[in-house]
Amino acid sequence: MKTISGPKTPNLLQAMEWILAPINYLEKASKNHPEVFKSGILPIVDHLVLVSNPKILQNILTNDRQKFMACKDGNEILISLLGNHSLVMLEGDRHKQRRQLLMPSFHGQQISKYGDDICQITHQVMAETPHNQVFTARSLTQSITLGVMMQEVFGLREGERYQRLQTLLISLLGIFNVPINVAFLFFPSLQKNLGKWSPWGYFLSIRKQIDDLIYTEIAERRQSGMTERNDILSLLMNAKDSEGNSLTDEELRDELLTLLFAGYETTANALAWSLYWAHRLPEVKAKILAELATLENHDPSAIARLPYLSAVCQETLRLYPIALVTFPRLVKEATELEGYHFPANTIILGSIYQIHHRPEIYPEPEMFKPERFLEKQFSPYEYLPFGGGVRRCLGEVLAQFEMKLALAEILSHYELILADQRPEKPQRSGVLLGPARGVPMILKETIVR
Ligand code: HEM
After folding, report:
1. Would you kindly state where each structural domain of the chain is located, as residue ranges?
2. Closest Cα to atom 27, ligand 1: which residue?
3. E-assigned strand segments in 187-337
4. Does the beta carbon of 433 lie inside 6 Å of ligand 1?
5. What CATH number was assigned to the domain covering residues 11-446?
6. Do 253 and 261 contact (CB within 8 A), yes or no?
7. 398 touches ligand 1 (CB under 6 Å)
């Protein structure tokens, strides 16, 4: 039986490389350990293994309520942000029950109701973008995805609370865009409140103000009976689990922040990359526009079904997956998979980036080629930008819908160009991966059709 080995570098250096240069770290690992490797990237976890063999990962993700568990170990680095009651901090039956309660709000039928809003938010953000000046695609896509979060998740459209919450959320998420601040999450001993000018003290003061706004919003809705609305907060306030229990205010707060944290920057980075590829490779934009021209009108559901547009979004998430790894899974009892021995209590991360770069699955893996998704169907363990198993991304349908609609609307109504020809490289952005320079662009013209 094969034992699982890993880099010889001390864990602390591995953790630093993972924070500062995650792609280098994974590419070296792919050369030396192409299937699985023992890793030191999470200082709070003892036995951590990254899996980049799709067969092994399939076995794990199809059994992650049996031999394996979608545990909270490792996710605890997010506790200070998301709270104890967040879905990602739950395990076993409690996690299952919570998923059952949340899932209906994220089904395709529900999400399809947001189509017109997403298009409208996109046009609103574009209307605020000045012509002939350099801006980053990421700041634009952040405004779009934050608008969608505020409107569809929090149910806020305008007013003072909307403005304040939006500003605070931007500040909160901005803290962790600075790679070194991510160390506060990875090393809990650094989480010391040294006053509001210290990074952690600043974070705590912002979080407190956000909590207050959310609790006030929930209390007002309960009092005024304004819960019969279509936004996700209202749906969650009305949702009941199989035993008839609904979420407490604290649970609602934690889930709102979880959805925001999981859904805002992820989708913004993905959309920024898709804008980059559509302008870096002119044939990609031309093909999307040709496909859009076959539609009688821009009905959101029809746009979302377009095959080439879908393939562009899929390839965007393959080449530089926004989440490099899945959430952790725990080995409950010692097991053997594909000849490797996994001792009990090992923590496993599915290595999404490494799998998406396996040349036998994706020939010329560094090339952006949407056609691969039109020519071949990949298994859910060969292509998994949204993870898999019992923790598979809850917002997958919303994220893809947003990506396709915003990209289609921008390409068909606005003439954008890349501000320069320097290639955009992937870089850590918080716990995610995003375009290093944010994709500098210029808006040349608004096209009235
Ligand atoms: C392009 C955008 C997105 C990407 C690439 C992405 C990716 C992921 C990944 C890889 C996971 C872990 C899955 C696993 O461990 O197997 C995950 C979990 C999750 N995602 Fe997303 N996500 C995106 C957008 C969203 C959106 C828009 C929302 C909600 C509004 C969302 C909510 C969640 C939640 C709540 C979980 C945790 C599920 C659980 O613990 O059961 N995500 N996502």
Report:
1. 11-446
2. 263
3. 329-331, 335-337
4. no
5. 1.10.630.10
6. no
7. yes
